[in-house]
Design brief:
Distance between the termini: 43 Å
CATH architecture of the largest domain: Alpha-Beta Barrel
Largest sheet: 8 strands, parallel, barrel
Number of domains: 2
Radius of gyration: 21 Å
Structural class: alpha/beta
CATH class of the largest domain: Alpha Beta
Bound molecules: erythose-4-phosphate
Number of helices: 12
Strand order of the largest sheet: 1-2-3-4-5-6-7-8
CATH superfamily of the largest domain: Aldolase class I
């Protein structure tokens, strides 16, 4: 499972990569707009924080395949080879995907709501497809089931495309994606923290500390080794 953080907030990205095994950052125009700052400056700063070994998914905003193609080229000049251009699935998007795939770009087809959109994107050359789990749940569809069927389709047709499940509101949704074989999830920083939070774990850690301090006070293992 690849965990990706779904934010453009600099402090939250710094925190996420320091404390979690994060494979990259995803953004979209909504996420970018929340930062109210210069777009180019922002993506350069994110890139300098995550480095070129983590993926950086940036959504294109052009409405024609030609504009998308040129946006992708310009972004790759800035970001480099860890850039994944996010393209919303549509006719123009698929045309751009095929053209960019031929040129060796990494592509994440996004705003996926159906299994056939995902299959079509994979056939066009997308590296990832991003189905929107919570938005599907919100229309009384079943986001986890859609992801599971996409995973199964890619397996059946031996396609190299991976499923990057997106749009989560709960840690439970994320867990269910891992149970149906989703290859990657992109989650906001709050959900990332919820994925490891459990009150019993907190109690256990507090008990360990209290028991240790009851006998050894504030001395740490390192203090004791130094005293040898
Ligand atoms: C991924 O980058 C998607 O754009 C994002 O997860 C969508 O999430 P939302 O449905 O919470 O807006």
């Amino acid at each position: 499972m690849l965990y990706i953080v779904d934010t453009a907030n600099i402090e939250k990205i710094r925190h996420a990569i320091e404390y979690f095994p994060i494979a990259g950052v995803t953004t979209n125009p909504t996420i970018i707009s929340k930062e109210h700052t210069d777009f180019i400056k922002l993506i350069k700063e994110i890139e300098s924080i995550i480095g070129n070994n983590r993926m950086f998914h940036i959504q294109l905003t052009g409405s024609t395949s030609d504009t998308m193609f040129r946006e992708a080229q310009a972004l790759r000049d800035i970001i480099g080879d860890n850039l994944y251009v996010k393209i919303p699935v549509s006719e123009e998007g698929l045309k751009a995907t095929m053209a960019l795939h031929r040129e060796g770009f990494h592509i994440t087809e996004t705003a996926i709501f159906t299994q056939q959109q995902a299959l079509m994107a994979a056939m066009a050359g997308a590296d990832f497809v991003a189905p929107y789990v919570n938005r599907l749940d919100n229309i009384i569809s079943d986001g986890v089931n859609v992801v599971g069927e996409i995973v199964e389709l890619f397996r059946q047709y031996s396609l190299p495309t991976k499923v990057l499940a997106a749009s989560f509101k709960t840690a439970e949704q994320v867990h269910k994606i891992s149970m149906v074989g989703g290859h990657a999830v992109t989650v906001n920083p709050d959900i990332l923290e919820n994925l490891i939070y459990h009150p019993l774990t907190m109690y256990a850690i507090d008990d360990f500390t209290a028991d240790w301090e009851g006998v050894y006070g504030k001395k740490t293992i390192l203090d004791m080794i130094k005293e040898q």
